[in-house]
Structures are given as C-alpha cells and as structure tokens.
Amino acid sequence: MSEPTPSEAARNRAELRNWRLWLSPIIAAVLLMSAISGVYLSGFLNSSSNIADFPLAVVSQDAGTTLPDGTPGNVDQIAAGLVSGMNGDQFTVVQLTADEAATRMNDASLHGFILIPETFSADLATYAQDAATSQPSSRSG
Fold this sequence. Notes:
The protein is an alpha/beta fold. The chain has 6 helices and 5 strands.
C-alpha cells in the first residue's frame, strides 16, 4: 500500500473536518441513548402501583432484656407492628426465623427481610437509660 500524496492527505483531512460526516453518528448515538434511558426509567415511573404481593419477612433474633424498672423488654411488638403495618395490597409480610428466611431467599420466594439483631432491645434500653440520665449541656450565650 502506497503513501497518500500530499493532496490526497489534505483532501482526507478536509473530509474528516466536514460536520456532515459526524452529524449522522452523533444523532444516532443521541437517539439510542434516549431510547435506552426511556425504557430503563419507564420501569420506575409509578412503581408503587406496579408492586403487588411483594414478599418480605421480619426476622427477630432479639434475646430480650430486662429494663431498669424490672419490666421485660423485647421487640415482639415492633416485629408484629412491622408485619401488620405494611400495605397488604403491595407487600406480603411474614415473621420467619433466620434459617427460614435464608431458605426462602435462596429459592426466590422471598425478596427481602428486615433483621432485628440479638442485642436490639438491650441496645434500646441502654440508649433510653443514657438519654434519661444525661445532663443537658449548658450553653453560654
């Protein structure tokens, strides 16, 4: 293959600088990106009405604790409130053990779960006690 002559090289450079050469690929890329964006985003528009019977679980591993006033503190009420408080038309929420939730997640019959850790009620009691006994800071003005 021979080297282009200086006049051919100048003509090639001039053709590459012509805006008409670049117009159609730019328009095609913009249209393609717009179409992809439109298809992707259309799945998120009004997504709350597209959800029906989305299976979720509440997994409570809380061991419970005794509050400073002697009453037992555990999160059974919180877990029950999560189960009953979800919109029944959109979510199917059940209480499961960690093993049951893992099994159902693996077979795709469950899409997610809320995990309440073992020390949750003990941590809440500690935070509540700390908040009740802490002294408000004085601000000098």
